[in-house]
Amino acid sequence: MSAKVFQSDAPLDERRVIIRRHDGDVEMVELPWGLRSRDGGPRPVSVVRSEGRTFPTHRCLVPASEFRHKSFSFSLATGDWFYFAGIWRPATDDWPEVYAILTIEANADIAPFHARQMAVLTRDRRMAWLEGLVPEEEILRPLPAGTFRIKRHPGAPAQRAMAL
To answer: Would 162 be classed as within a structural domain?
Structure first.
């Protein structure tokens, strides 16, 4: 399997491969990005704040090699690829089967750009998330300083602003 760059400004219905446990098996499926809001509103939700919540079922992993948003990108300083911790929802009569990515407080590398970030899991932590082997508050937390390499794209404004 190969991971690819994750574009935060991609259309919410963009399809992407996720990894999940379903019917007792671990499987890779391609799903659109964007949960229907719980209040039934018309605007899909692409990210979900994780603090104070539990996710006992419908967990998924979203593989990525780099995350890009407008003027900036980040990747692991080691050059390895990683996973975003996510959740998926089964299809309903009026909404397809979809996924969203969980967010956490930004780590020291990303904090100068934004207060929050998508929850990044290194490959050695992927099954702990997928299998629910550790409590959410132990795995959905910022990685240590120096984990990420931040890159500003050519022509990007010098102002530090990154919306996640």
So the answer is: no
How many helices (DSSP H) and strands (DSSP E) are in the chain? Answer: 2, 12
Whether the pTM exceeds 0.85: the reply is yes
Q: What are phi and psi of 138, to 5 degrees?
A: -85, -25
Predicted confidence (pLDDT) per residue in 92-146, tens digit: 888 889 999 999 999 999 999 889 999 999 999 999 999 998 899 999 999 999 9
Rounded alpha-carbon distances, angstroms, from residue 38 to 24, 47, 89: 27, 13, 11
Using alpha carbons, select from 64, 70, 62 the residue that is nearest to residue 156: 70
CATH number at residue 83: 3.90.1680.10
Domain that holds residue 72: 5-134+142-152
Q: Which residues of 1-40 are buried (b: 16+ CB within 10 A; e: fewer)?
A: eebeebbbeeeeeeebebbbbeeeeeeeeebbbbbbeeee
- Domain assignment present for residue 160? The answer is no
Structurally, how many domains does the chain consist of? 1
159 found inside a domain: no
Span 67-106, pLDDT tens digits = 887 788 999 999 999 999 999 999 888 888 999 999 999 9
**CA proximity to 59, closest of 23, 96, 19:** 19
